[in-house]
Amino acid sequence: MGEMLSGKNILVMGVRNKWSIAWGIAQAAYREGANLIFTYLGDREKEELEKLTAGMGTLHAHPCDVTSDEDIEKLFDWVKAEFGVIHGLVHAIAFAKSEDLRESFLNTSRDGFRLALDVSAYSFVAVCRHAAEIMTEGGSIITLTYRGSMKIVPGYNVMGVAKAALEASVRYAAYELGSRNIRVNSLSSGPIKTLSAKGIKNFNDVLKVVEERSPLRRNVTLEDLGNTAVYLLSDLSSGVTGEIIYVDSGYNNMGL
Ligand code: NAD
Ligand code: IMJ
Question: What structural domains and CATH numbers belong to the chain?
Answer without folding.
Answer: 9-245 (3.40.50.720)
